[in-house]
C-alpha cells in the first residue's frame, strides 16, 4: 500500500473528504479516536494481513506513525 492509498484508507475510516488528510496531521487534531483504532486494526488485517498491536498503536501521534504499521508491522 502506497502513501496515497493509505491516506485514502484513513479518510475512509474518519469519513472525511478525499484529499483532506496529510501524513503530518496529528491524530488528536483530526478526531482519531478508539473507534478509528479498532477500524484501522481491522482494515490492516483484512486488506494487508498485517497484525497491529493496540498498545503500539496507542503510541502513534501522526498519520505518518500509522503508516509505519503498513511497512513495519508489529
Give a description of the structure:
With 74 residues, this protein is mostly helical. It has one domain (3-71): Non-ribosomal Peptide Synthetase Peptidyl Carrier Protein, Chain A. It has helices at 3-14, 34-48, 54-57, 63-71. It is globular. InterPro entries: ACP-like_sf, PP-bd_ACP.
Summarize the structure.
By secondary structure, the chain is mostly helical. It contains 4 helices and no strands.
Strands, total number: 0
Q: In the CATH scheme, what's the topology name?
A: Non-ribosomal Peptide Synthetase Peptidyl Carrier Protein, Chain A
Helix content: 40-55%
- Weakly predicted, low-confidence segments: none
What is the CATH architecture annotation?
Orthogonal Bundle
Order of helices and strands: HHHH
Structural class, please?
Answer: mainly alpha
* Count of the separate structural domains: 1
Intertermini distance: 17 Å
Mean pLDDT: 93
Overall 3D geometry? globular
CATH class: Mainly Alpha
Computed CA radius of gyration, to the nearest angstrom: 11 Å
Largest sheet: none
Amino acid at each position: 500500500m502506497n502513501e496515497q492509498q493509505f491516506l485514502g484508507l484513513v479518510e475512509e475510516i474518519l469519513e472525511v473528504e478525499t484529499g483532506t488528510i496529510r501524513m503530518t496531521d496529528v491524530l488528536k487534531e483530526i478526531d482519531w479516536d478508539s473507534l478509528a483504532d479498532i477500524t484501522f486494526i481491522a482494515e490492516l488485517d483484512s486488506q494487508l494481513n498485517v497484525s497491529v498491536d493496540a498498545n503500539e498503536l496507542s503510541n502513534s501521534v501522526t498519520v505518518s506513525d500509522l503508516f509505519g504499521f503498513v511497512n513495519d508491522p508489529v
